[in-house]
Design a protein that fits this description.
Length: about 425
């Protein structure tokens, strides 16, 4: 059991790792180049997704692939010059998405998701974070009866095999639940378990405050300066070098900048996403997050306004933002809800860290004693941060892990 740990990355995952290690008596330093929760944890749909037991597989239908290839959709976009760099990880993503292999992804993902609500509440209890967690669930709307039928069949599987809860609404029930919708839909699935987060950044900050109030050390620094220091590790912070016996890489999409020089380069790839907030006209309200299947984006009520989120954009690392998906989505969103003016002029952009087998990397970094990994959560970093933090802290301190860590082992790559 290490007496001191340096956690690189102060997003939801890194903060949760730091908190769980601290609760086990470890002296933890949390290092990031910016403030807690200002990376990918800042921008998301704001959901603790207990229902997300089926990770998103690579599309296999020819019609769907043709639609994405046209590069005109809201849910997926790409920079043509970036595609060569994505070829290898996307090919592996496609391979792992084959029906026979996808079963393993579901098994591993569902095991992590099963405890996400309990793990969040364990960190949020007795703090200002509780006010940010709303038990509203979220709704997915359908206009096509075939899509609704298929979604209901999968929802029944989620309930039978993984204990997920949902209700169904017809057109009248949906209109009653969300009276300010401007369109009529055939029906909706209301996932009732998830917690909706009114400010994801504030949630990460609340957990970070709990860490520092209990004596944890939060510093600004450069994770890429990580080096061996005797039997331990050292990185450069603004106040000078910081050292610890062990290190955790929880840097999301930037993890390879630290692990690759250490000889570990898993096929991590990034999906960029954008969001923008809007006020609602008059006395209009939105009770819970809505995803309109026909439109391909999420609208979520937040403290800052209604958040319009996009799907995935594939671009080169450090390429300038190109929020074309938001430009495509906004007029459609105005046809769904009476949106007023935008709250901010410039949309937010972040990068989601994805693995081709749809499972995060949690465990010891191969060939580097005292180094550990906690990254690659895709779209579920907010959901799975506390679960990952507990699992990794138990592994690092010699406790019996509360779930089997084998599916997430870094050495699988």
């Amino acid at each position: 059991m290490p007496q001191s740990v340096l956690v690189l990355g102060a997003g939801m995952v890194g903060v949760a790792v730091a908190l769980h290690l601290q609760r086990r008596g470890v002296a933890v330093t949390l290092l990031d180049r910016q403030g807690p929760g200002e990376g990918a944890s800042f921008g998301n749909g704001g959901l603790i997704q207990r229902e997300a037991v089926f990770p998103t597989a690579f599309p296999r239908a020819a019609a769907e692939l043709r639609r994405i290839a046209r590069n005109r959709s809201i849910d997926a976009a790409y920079h043509p010059d970036a595609l060569p760099g994505y070829a290898a990880p996307l090919l592996r993503y496609w391979w792992h998405s084959a029906p026979g292999r996808y079963v393993a992804a579901v098994r591993g993902h569902a095991a992590l998701v099963a405890t996400c609500l309990d793990e969040h509440l364990a960190l949020a209890r007795d703090t200002e974070a509780m006010a940010l967690l709303r038990p509203t669930g979220w709704m997915r709307l359908y206009a096509d009866p075939r899509l609704l039928e298929a979604a209901l069949a999968q929802a029944e599987l989620a309930r039978r095999d993984h204990g997920v809860n949902f209700t169904t609404l017809d057109a009248a029930g949906l209109a009653a639940a969300e009276p300010h919708l401007l369109v009529q839909r055939l029906g909706a699935i209301h996932w009732t378990d998830p917690l909706a987060v009114s400010d994801p950044h504030a949630l990460t900050l609340a957990y970070a405050n709990r860490f520092t109030e209990a004596g944890g050390r939060l510093v600004t620094g450069d994770a890429t300066t990580l080096r061996r220091a005797g039997a331990g590790w050292q990185a450069q912070a603004s106040e000078g070098p910081v050292q610890a016996e062990a290190v955790v890489v929880a840097l999301g999409a930037g993890a390879l900048r630290v692990t690759q020089p250490l000889g570990y380069a898993p096929p991590l790839f990034g999906k960029r996403g954008y969001h923008k907030h809007y006020r609602l006209q008059g006395n209009a309200t939105l009770g819970r997050p809505l995803l309109d299947t026909a439109s391909g984006f999420l609208l979520a009520p937040m403290r800052a306004g209604v958040r319009l989120t996009t799907g995935a954009e594939f671009a080169r690392d450090q390429a300038p933002p190109t929020p074309v998906q938001l430009a495509r989505a906004e007029p459609v969103a105005r046809g769904l809800l009476p949106l007023a003016e935008a709250v901010e002029q410039t949309p937010w952009m972040g990068v989601r860290p994805c693995m081709p087998d749809m499972l995060p990397v949690i465990g010891p970094l191969p060939g580097q004693p005292g180094a550990w990994c906690a990254f690659g959560h895709g779209h579920q970093g907010l959901t799975l941060g506390p679960t990952t933090g507990r699992l990794l802290a138990e592994m690092m301190t010699g406790e019996r892990p509360f779930l089997n860590p084998e599916p997430y082992r870094p050495s699988r790559f």
